[in-house]
Amino acid sequence: MSVKIRLQRHGKKGKPFYWVVAADARAKRDGKYLEKLGTYNPNTNPATIDLNVDGAVKWLQNGAQPTDTARNILSYKGVLLKNHLAGGVRKGALTEEQAEAKFAAWLEQKEGTVNAKKDGLAKAEADAKAATLAAEKAISDKRIADASEAQAAAETEAAGEESTDEAEA
Question: What is the pTM (predicted TM-score) of this model?
Answer without folding.
Answer: 0.71
